[in-house]
Write a structure and sequence with these properties.
Shape: globular
Number of helices: 15
Bound molecules: 2-aminohexanedioic acid
Helix content: 25-40%
Active site: 265, 299
Protein name: Bifunctional protein PutA
Largest sheet: 7 strands, mixed
Radius of gyration: 24 Å
Domain Aldehyde dehydrogenase: 26-488
Function: Oxidizes proline to glutamate for use as a carbon and nitrogen source.
Strand order of the largest sheet: 13-14-15-12-11-16-17
Structural class: alpha/beta
Distance between the termini: 79 Å
Number of strands: 18
Strand content: 15-25%
Organism: Qipengyuania soli
Length: 507
Amino acid sequence: PTVREPLLERLAALESRQWHAEPTFVSGAEGETAPITKPHDLTQTVGTRRDALPEEVAEAIARAEAIQPGWDALGGEKRALLLEEAADLFEAHTDEILSLCQREAGKTLVDAVLELREAVDFLRYYAGEARRLFNAPIPLPGPTGEENRLTLAGRGVFATISPWNFPLAIFIGPAAAALAAGNTVVAKPAEQTPLIAALAVKLCHQAGIPEDVFQLITGAGDVGAMITSDPRIAGVAFTGSTQTAQAINRSLAARDAPIATFIAETGGQNAMIVDSTALPEQVTRDVVASAFQSAGQRCSALRVLYVQEDVADGMIEMIRGAFEALSVGDPDDLATDVGPVIDPDAQAALERHVARREQSGRTIWRRDLAPETAKGCFVAPTIIEMDSILDLKRENFGPVLHVVRFKAADLPQVVRDINATGYGLTLGLHSRLEETREYVERHARVGNFYVNRNQIGAVVESQPFGGEGLSGTGPKAGGPHYVLRFATERVVCIDTTAAGGNATLLA
Ligand code: UN1
């Protein structure tokens, strides 16, 4: 308590502060502002958002394009120092960041702390990548009399389009990678969470990154479409739904412009397989964390639990016990495990899904919600039994867990069904059998495979994160190949013999 109380007091002092988000380049024309409300209490505002006007989007891209060669020429070391300075400033503004994560995105304090940690980790990791990859040319082998070298450079203006579920970490991560590689960035955060993004951009400018180099663009999908249809955009890094990624891909392809780089991190239909050798207490802890932490609003979250039928009754009973003990409510309350979902649309989509499943008559457990949750976007944590992962047609982004029983001999079919969803993001396995682990590891087409632990919370550098198939293009965020996708390669070959020409070939 001695450590926690001053923090809680400082957060309480920020409780009524109002924030504003608008584009970095402001034309002076009057645009409409919209209120941003707390997901857990729609009667309370956190601030306002003013969407970018078409002329502001065009001007932002023009400025980013004009300054890009200079930013690229700065070199890896100087860009690294600026990104590290931004990381320090993020840490120095812990209170504001935690407060905004809680009020704008409805995060619990634990999730808010993890979010800030991940954002800072991304900044420092990509700063390291700027140093590793962009400081000096890479010498290449060649015959005597010939000098070959390869340099990496920025591609141009990158657009980053980021989601509300990691409004700071996944806003800043792709942008930092693009900046590290020598690109300039126009960044459009989700329309639900522009305030924390605006603070992040402001802190980057304070760190010394020029305004034209890293620009905020506010707005919803229509503003995103203005950006991705612009022929001056050299690449897009997008995190969000598979459907939006497909639409962006079409928009980029339809331009009369150079072929763009497209990096997409999208949805999942993530499963966990539990066999009869698994440890029940561990399974219970990891299932509950994977399915219900962050109110299930992680693309890594567990959606479908496969339990071997011999142990299913006991395992489900234990999981249900822990599920009944979850505290659902106001994320400002330290005791809360499950907060709200992001907005009324998300809430309605989840309720429709549960209602459809109820009609199909399978066992459903739902938690009761306390009356005070009625003022926010709360969805009661739910567990639903069903026959196969293939009964689900889409990702259900919230605190809803589906359970399927399987026979030990059907493990290969379970893995085939998981692959047949077309998604390939996270997969969990609880088993003490080495051959089962090897089998699943070899056959499952997923990006991140977690064994005997939970399947959320990938850590920068230790667990580079990202999927395949409908889950995204790769490469993995926070891994050694990510920044390379934001760069172009240039090879220089110099004949260093006195005679020049083809002397080395003729010799
Ligand atoms: C997402 O929800 O978009 O592994 C990604 C995790 C996080 C990434 C989630 N580091 O849960």
